[in-house]
Amino acid sequence: MNPSRNELWNLYTQEKSQKIRNQLVESYFNLVKQETQKIKAPVGIEKQDIYQFGVLGLIKAVDNCDPDKVEKFEAYASIRIRGEIVDHLRQYAKHSQGVSRSTLERIKKMERIKNEIEIAKNDKVNEKEIMDYLNLNEKEFSKLQLKTLIYNGMSIDAFYENPNFEKKVDRSEDAEVQMLEDEKKKQVKFYLDKLKYKEKYVIDNYYFQHKNISVIANELGVSEARISQLHHDGINKLRLLLNNE
Known about the structure:
The protein is an all-alpha fold. 71% of the residues lie in helices and 0% in strands. It has three domains: 5-95, RNA polymerase sigma factor, region 2, helix turn helix motif (Rna Polymerase Sigma Factor, Chain: A); 99-177, no CATH class; 193-245, Winged helix-like DNA-binding domain superfamily/Winged helix DNA-binding domain (Arc Repressor Mutant, subunit A, Orthogonal Bundle).
């Protein structure tokens, strides 16, 4: 029989165990869902992203909750969850300045089509397939990928492992675009090795292997809340490393 919330709070107050903390967080996931449903996702942000922001707020709420005010935790947590979501959306809005709405829509369309093809063929997609579906030539596709790099600050999910697809790049603008893209790709892969094992595992499997959070959590033997935290920490470290490049 699973312990009640009150029992979990008592145990957490006494032990400050991460395992118990994660059980507490998971017991309040409904609060994250409620706050996520209230917010309309802006262009370039998925509902799942907003949900993960909310989970981080919930984790902080549990960590900072006064043991004498547990009875008011739900109201307090809702405020922290909402605040965390708003903070991340503000960062996103600031970061995405200079990238037009139409470009954001094309980036999300590219990502959506990529996922649809992979599901349909049960295999990884290559750039040629994406280009065909979007009706883009190599120059247009390279430009879109470069804009994705700028928009994301670092583009992990825009990278495709496609050793069989050879680009025919001329010595004009395409060559410069390709050079910049290849350099950014090398930087991300280089810095990925500087993360802690679990952070690297989460980011590699979530973005490159396209596994969902529950699968990664099961593989690592940790909670989904812990995966969200590892993802958040790893991404922040990568951004810091790339921005200092």
